[in-house]
UniProtKB/TrEMBL annotation:
UniProt source species: Butyricimonas hominis
Descriptive protein name: Cell envelope integrity protein CreD
Residue intervals passing through the bilayer: 20-41, 325-343, 350-370, 376-397, 404-423, 429-447
Entry keywords, A to Z: Membrane, Transmembrane, Transmembrane helix
Gene this protein is translated from: creD
Length: 456
C-alpha cells in the first residue's frame, strides 16, 4: 500500500529533476550561442578602433608625424693613406660638448569625422658649444689631414613639420640651414649647412652655436642626448603627458593646465662617445636591391627620450576591456533567473532567456556608439541604465512579481558598477578582478545551498 502511494511522488520527483537538468543544459547551450554575438561585438570594437587609427594616420600624413630631434652634429672629413699607399677619405661625427634645449609645445585637437587627433606646434631653441679638445685628441691610429670644411647636421624626422626657416647662429655669424644631411652623418633626414671649422682644428678653441627650430608634429616629440652634457626643458599645455624613452625627467610637474619637465643626461649615461667614426662606403657593390645608406641606423637611437602627448581617454580600449566581462554578466544573470524559477515556481522559457542575453549583448554596441560622441563615463552610465531598465521591465512582465524583477535589476546595477570601477584600474585590475570573482562565486554557492532541490 505504501509503495503504491509513494510511486507517483517518486515519478513526479524524477520528472522534475529531469526537467531541471534539461533546463540547465538549455541555459548552457544559450550561453554558448550568445558567445557568437559577443565575438561579433568585439570585432566591431576592433574595426572602429582601426578606423580611428587610420584617421589618425591620415591626419598625421597631412599635418606631420612624431618628431625626433637629433643634433646638431658636425660631420668632418679627413684624408689618410691605406696599407697600399692610396689616399682614402674618412669621416667622423663630432658631438657638442654642451647642448641645452628649451621648448614650448602647444597642443590642439583636429577632427576627422567622429575622431579627434592630437597634434602640436613646438618652438625649440638648441644652444651649446663645440670644443676642440676632444676632436684633436681623437685617436684614428693613422696620419691624417683634416678638411677644414665640415657639415653641421640637425636631424628632424619629419621635414614637413618645419614651419619656419631654421636659423643658425655659429660663432657669432647667422646662417639659414638647408634641407638634406651629409650621407656620412649619424642622422639620415633633416637640415644641414657647410661650415669652415678651422677654429676647431686649433687647441683650446670653443665655438658657440644656437638653432631656432619651429616645428609641428603629432603624438610625440623625442630628443637624442648628443651633448657631453644634455639639458632639455619643455613646457606644454598638454595635461596628459607620458614620458618615454631611455631617460625619465629629473624634474616634472603635471597639472590640468599642462606640464613642465626637465632632463639632464651626461656622456657617461649613454653608450657612445663624443667622436663617432665612419668611412665613406664602397659604392662598387651598390644595386637597387642592396642600397647603401650610411647613417640610416643611428647609433644614438637607443638613447632617445622625450614625451608622448596623449588623449585623456581611450574609449575603444575601455570598451574592449568591458566586453571581456560580458560572459560573466550573462552567466550570473542566467543563474539568478534560474534560481528565481526554482524558488518562485515560475517558468522562464528558453526564448526569454535568449532575449535577455541579447539585451545584455546590446549594452556593448550602445557603449561603443555613444562613447564616440560623449565621454566614456556618461556613455557607460547611459548604456547600463538603458539595458538594466529594459531587462527589469521585461522580467516584471514575465514573472508578474515586481520585487523579484527589481532585485534582478539591482543585481545588474551592482555588476555594471563593479565592472566600471574594474576597468578604471591599471595596477590592481587583476587583484580586484580575482577578489570580486571569488566573492561572487561564494554568494552564488551560498544561495544555491539554500534551495531545496528535492522538492522541485
Amino acid at each position: 500500500m505504501n509503495e503504491q502511494t509513494n510511486l507517483p511522488h517518486k515519478e513526479r520527483h524524477t520528472q522534475n529533476r529531469d526537467a531541471i537538468t534539461l533546463k540547465i543544459l538549455l541555459i548552457g547551450v544559450l550561453i554558448v550561442i550568445l558567445i557568437i554575438p559577443m565575438f561579433m561585438i568585439q570585432n566591431l570594437i576592433s574595426e572602429r578602433e582601426n578606423t580611428a587609427k587610420e584617421a589618425t594616420t591620415e591626419v598625421q600624413q597631412k599635418w606631420s608625424g612624431p618628431q625626433t630631434i637629433i643634433g646638431p652634429v658636425l660631420t668632418l672629413s679627413y684624408t689618410y693613406q691605406d696599407e697600399k699607399g692610396k689616399n682614402k677619405t674618412g669621416y667622423i661625427n663630432y658631438l657638442p660638448d654642451q647642448l641645452d634645449i628649451t621648448g614650448d609645445i602647444e597642443t590642439q585637437e583636429l577632427k576627422r569625422g567622429l575622431y579627434e587627433i592630437i597634434v602640436y606646434n613646438s618652438s625649440l631653441e638648441l644652444k651649446g658649444k663645440f670644443i676642440s679638445k676632444d676632436l684633436l685628441e681623437t685617436n684614428l691610429s693613422r696620419d691624417i689631414k683634416w678638411n677644414e670644411n665640415a657639415t653641421l647636421n640637425l636631424g628632424v624626422s619629419d621635414l614637413r613639420g618645419i614651419c619656419e626657416q631654421v636659423a643658425l647662429t655659429w660663432n657669432g655669424q647667422k646662417y639659414n640651414m638647408e634641407p638634406g644631411v651629409n650621407p656620412n652623418s649619424i642622422v639620415y633626414t633633416g637640415t644641414s649647412i657647410h661650415l669652415n671649422v678651422s677654429d676647431l682644428l686649433t687647441p683650446d678653441k670653443t665655438i658657440d652655436f644656437s638653432v631656432k627650430l619651429t616645428t609641428k608634429g603629432s603624438a610625440s616629440i623625442l630628443f637624442a642626448p648628443v651633448g657631453k652634457t644634455t639639458n632639455v626643458a619643455l613646457n606644454s599645455n598638454c595635461p596628459t603627458p607620458s614620458f618615454s624613452g631611455a631617460f625619465l625627467p629629473s624634474e616634472r610637474e603635471v597639472n590640468p593646465n599642462g606640464f613642465t619637465s626637465k632632463w639632464k643626461v651626461l656622456e657617461i649615461n649613454r653608450n657612445f662617445s663624443q667622436v663617432l667614426r665612419s668611412y665613406q662606403p664602397d659604392l662598387s657593390n651598390y644595386t637597387p636591391s642592396n642600397p647603401i645608406r650610411p647613417g640610416e641606423i643611428s647609433i644614438v637611437s637607443s638613447s632617445i627620450f622625450g614625451v608622448d602627448l596623449l588623449f585623456p581617454v581611450d574609449h575603444y580600449q575601455k570598451s574592449t576591456r568591458s566586453a571581456k566581462y560580458a560572459f560573466l554578466i550573462i552567466v550570473l544573470t542566467f543563474v539568478v533567473c534560474f534560481f528565481v524559477e526554482i524558488v518562485q515556481k515560475k517558468n522562464i522559457y528558453p526564448l526569454q532567456y535568449l532575449l535577455v542575453g541579447l539585451a545584455l549583448c546590446l549594452f556593448y554596441t550602445l557603449l561603443v556608439s555613444t562613447s564616440e560622441h560623449i565621454s566614456f563615463t556618461w556613455a557607460y552610465l547611459l548604456s547600463a541604465l538603458a539595458t538594466t531598465t529594459l531587462i527589469t521591465l521585461y522580467m516584471v512582465g514575465i514573472l508578474k512579481i515586481k520585487k523579484t524583477a527589481f532585485t534582478i535589476g539591482g543585481l545588474l546595477v551592482c555588476l555594471y558598477t563593479y565592472i566600471f570601477f574594474l576597468i578604471q584600474l591599471e595596477t590592481y585590475a587583476l587583484l580586484a578582478g580575482s577578489i570580486g570573482l571569488f566573492v561572487i562565486l561564494a554568494i552564488v554557492m551560498y544561495f544555491s545551498q539554500k534551495i531545496n532541490w528535492h522538492n522541485n
